[in-house]
Amino acid sequence: KILNEKRDKLEFSKVVCGYPLSIFFIVVNEFCERFSYYGMRAVLVLYFKYFLRWDDDLATSIYHTFVALCYLTPILGAIVADSWLGKFKTIIYLSIVYAVGQVAMAVSAIHDITDSDRDGTPDSMTFHIVLSMVGLFLIALGTGGIKPCVAAFGGDQFGEHQDRQRRTFFSVFYLCINGGSLLSTIITPVLRAQECGIYSKQKCYSLAFGVPAALMVVALVVFIIGSGMYYKAEPQGNIMLDVCKCIGFAIKNRYRHRSKQYPKRQHWMDWAEEKYDKLLIAQIKMVLKVLFLYIPLPMFWTLFDQKGSRWTLQATTMDGNFGALVIQPDQMQTVNPILILTLVPIMDSLIYPLIKKCGLNFTPLKRMTVGMLLAAIAFVCAALVQIQIDKTLPTFPSTSQSQLKLLNMGSNSVTVKLPGNDALILPAAQVYPFINNCNTKFTNLLPETNDLTSKPQEGNNAIRFVNGMKTAVNVSTAAADFGLIEPFYYSNYSQIKNGKATFTLRSGSQSCEYSTNFGFGSSYTFFIHSTLVFGSNCQDSVTAVEDIKPNSVHMALQIPQYFFITAGEVMFSVTGLEFSYSQAPSNMKAVLQAGWLFTVAIGNFIVLIVAELAKIPKQWAEYVLFASLLVAVCVIFSIMAYFYTYIDPTEIEAQFKKKINEDDEDDKSKPGKAEVEMVKRDSIKCHDEYDKATQTKM
Ligand SMILES: CC(C)C[C@H](NC(=O)[C@@H](N)Cc1ccccc1)C(=O)O
């Protein structure tokens, strides 16, 4: 039967350069699917915030819940595939669900549908919220459900002696994931920035969701085109139910025979032998061994997934000016897929063969251990960068202090005497920041509200104007309106992006322009002199007073941490994907892929919990804490890995099946008591063969 299976696999698809042609359809499907997923994800928070008008907290919570759900649903997909529909049908049905979800998202983002008064804003937000939540649920079900199936289905296309090709397939598969995600994270934000609409023009979220929806349909069509070439392993009944029942029986039976009079068995699962097939017991042992090894793995993902949160926040306090190119903080994340696209081929064709040539046996579990260490190094790099950033941050008043800023609006310097302080000379048009304890009282000072207590967000610059003229002045730019500023009063802060900004100062029908350049994360108070003459150049009549310095640590300093985390990802994730396939019994390939993805979900939950619980005041210390935790987990993992013995599930299954066939034949000729004895003998023999097949250690 096994030999037939092997022959079948090769007969199903044409072979090109030693690879089954069917693989082409699977990797193209993965490319389009990841484009669809990451493209939609790239604009999701902005959609929540600006289209559905949710606040930051709600938008972030729903976003993380959605991501976590996408890594929990693989379990569902895997059970359906391995026990009921088979991988092929599961991929088809869940891809349809997925595409419907993406279309629902695109439709939910058409503001014209409920904009009956045609003012550009939806009139029934409930419609858009409900439709988008249904859409997200279907997407989570679809993307998570097919994820373990597509990888395992790809692995299934290879024959038993195509280990090398199968390893290369998993690398190419990973390249496609990152190629798709890289393209979409660049393209969909551009689509979102377009304006579209029937009655009124608004930011085009429907297009930003519509293109990923179209790509998901393409993914489905490509997968169906390959249909005739795939090797489709049949599902073997409700395997998960059998597994649970078998484990339950083994535990119960062990408990019933807990007294010392009963001889011990090699493995606690052997207590299921009275009722269950030896092959099933052996398969469960294989799965449990791998799942046990997975226990420390979520810690890697905990660090890995902070790229999107902590590291992006770190980038907002850095300078993204790369000469001709200005990088926004969230665009730094694209460094990860770019590095994947370069590192995977380098590792596969250079580093791993070189290590092999040096006579070192760089086994999958060793690679994963090194991957974890590299991720820890990435966090040490992040901590070092953070220390540099902290040195450039302004000092803000603590909770027991207050800050006073004195601005000399006159044209001469003045002497200021503050209670309990020496007199100071304040030059014209200058600000003097003064931090004092709250119990010091100042009188006769202009009350100032809404001053900054932290660096401006997202690399923006916080700008305000102080009017030193005797007439009210209106100030505006293309990006912000500061409104009418009364004489000797100040405007609120407005957020201005980096680059050149031109401000128009207007009084009645007269106006003049003032231009200046901004970096990232600065704050300025622009003081309008009393001497300003409208109609002339007002460049010399406005003084920029720097409240907070622009970010001076360059974003390029984040590249080493991205390099190490991505090198770690290549060693850990690409290897783990293949390891989960190769160590799984034939009827539980998708289930083990889902187990692997489950470690990603747990890692994401740990990020949420740690972010809430561990309120470490210094960000660099938090990075060091995470790095240390991963090193500790890595030590535990390497010990566990040392005791792990690699198996060849196909060989073990073949031996068991052979024995069962022989037993069947013997059954016909030797019924009765002799048969029981022989099964016992064979069982011992099978265990010996199992042991022989599991010789290689870490
Ligand atoms: C976490 C998943 C198991 C692995 C995989 N993700 C990646 O390969 C990331 N490098 C992709 C990426 C793209 C853009 C920004 C950050 C990460 C997956 O999605 O299957």
Write structural notes for this entry.
- The relative contact order is 0.12.
- By secondary structure, this protein is α+β, with helices and mostly antiparallel strands.
- The protein folds into 4 domains: 24-153 and 161-235, Growth Hormone, Chain: A (Up-down Bundle), CATH 1.20.1250; 277-394 and 555-644, Growth Hormone, Chain: A; 401-548, no CATH class; 650-693.
- The two termini are 31 Å apart.
- It contains 18 helices and 19 strands.
- The longest helix has 35 residues, at 74-108.
- The ligand CC(C)C[C@H](NC(=O)[C@@H](N)Cc1ccccc1)C(=O)O binds next to helix 6, helix 12 and helix 14.
- The chain crosses the membrane at residues 12-28, 58-79, 91-113, 125-146, 167-187, 207-231, 286-304, 338-355, 367-389, 590-611, 623-644.
- It comes from Lates calcarifer (Barramundi).
- InterPro entries: MFS_trans_sf, POT_fam, PTR2_symporter_CS.
- One of its GO terms (biological process) is oligopeptide transport.
Spell out the blueprint of helices and strands:
Layout: H1 2-12, E1 15-16, E2 19-20, H2 22-51, H3 56-72, H4 74-108, H5 125-156, H6 163-193, E3 195-196, E4 202-203, H7 205-225, H8 239-256, H9 278-294, H10 298-304, H11 310-316, E5 321-322, E6 325-326, H12 335-357, H13 364-392, E7 401-407, E8 414-416, E9 424-426, E10 431-437, E11 461-467, E12 473-476, E13 481-485, E14 489-490, E15 494-496, E16 499-507, E17 510-518, E18 523-528, E19 542-548, H14 559-582, H15 589-613, H16 619-642, H17 649-669, H18 673-693
Parallel strand pairs: 11-18
Antiparallel strand pairs: 1-2, 3-4, 5-6, 7-10, 8-9, 11-14, 11-15, 12-13, 12-16, 16-17, 18-19
